[in-house]
Amino acid sequence: MIANHFEVELQKGETMAKPNSKAPLGQGGRFAAVAKAAGGGKKGAAIAAAAGRKKYGAAKMAKMAAAGKKKAK
Questions:
Q1: Considering the domain boundaries, does residue 37 fall inside one?
Q2: How many CA atoms lie within 13 A of 59 on its CB side?
């Protein structure tokens, strides 16, 4: 479900960063851009996560996800 053209809603009250393919690694902008390009919503986020795990590895993706969740609070 797309909240608006800038933010992708994952779960109730949880949103990703604004899509920006030039954003620094770890800020979520690159992830959001890939997720939006892949169809948005949960499907796009799943595709972006799979691509990220392939490129950066599971450990680094988990570390970036944890940092993003911590920063969002």
A1: yes
A2: 0
